[in-house]
Design a protein that fits this description.
The protein is an all-alpha fold. The chain is 75% helix and 0% strand. It has 7 helices and no strands. It has helices spanning 8-12, 17-36, 40-59, 65-74, 88-109, 113-133, 137-152. Helix 2 packs across helix 4. The longest helix has 22 residues, at 88-109.
């Protein structure tokens, strides 16, 4: 019997629970940042989180340390996912997180602590939505921008 070609997303797709796991860890990190800010510790921790966002944005969400942890320690204990998701929207979401992380760092490093707190607060809200409800705000923004772009063209 001939095989049916699988869509590209199916071969390269993400287990949607991976980004949700990453969002839970991110939310925990950002809670600690907010609880300890403004401080050198909070700024350093935010710098680490921002580097993680940069890794996800530049190399892809599959290349982050939290994705490795999910694949190595969590995924083997779960049943297969019902479906796989396109990695492009979560990668864009990491780019949005990177922007908020950079803004937060600029705020903390320049003494504009309220800017840092607000930026971290927005990133935390997005991470909590994904971690708890599997609602990826950055992914939805990606899809909206993609739709708008196709309308404009």
């Amino acid at each position: 019997m001939p095989t049916i070609a699988q869509p590209t997303v199916a071969r390269t797709g993400l287990d949607p629970r991976g980004p949700q796991f990453t969002a839970a860890i991110t939310a925990g990190v950002l809670v600690v940042v907010l609880a300890t800010a403004p401080s050198v510790f909070a700024t350093g921790l935010l710098a680490v989180q921002t580097a993680l966002f940069a890794t996800g944005a530049l190399r892809g969400v599959q290349k982050t340390p939290t994705a490795w942890l999910f694949r190595a320690a969590v995924r083997p204990r779960l049943s297969p996912p019902d479906d796989l998701e396109d990695p492009a929207p979560p990668r864009f979401a990491q780019t949005v997180g990177l922007a908020f992380g950079v803004i937060g760092l600029v705020g903390f490093l320049t003494g504009l602590d309220i800017l840092g707190l607000v930026a971290v607060g927005f990133a935390l809200a997005a991470a909590v939505l994904n971690a708890v409800f599997r609602f990826c705000l950055g992914c939805e923004l990606y899809l909206l921008l993609k739709r708008l772009r196709s309308v404009v063209e």
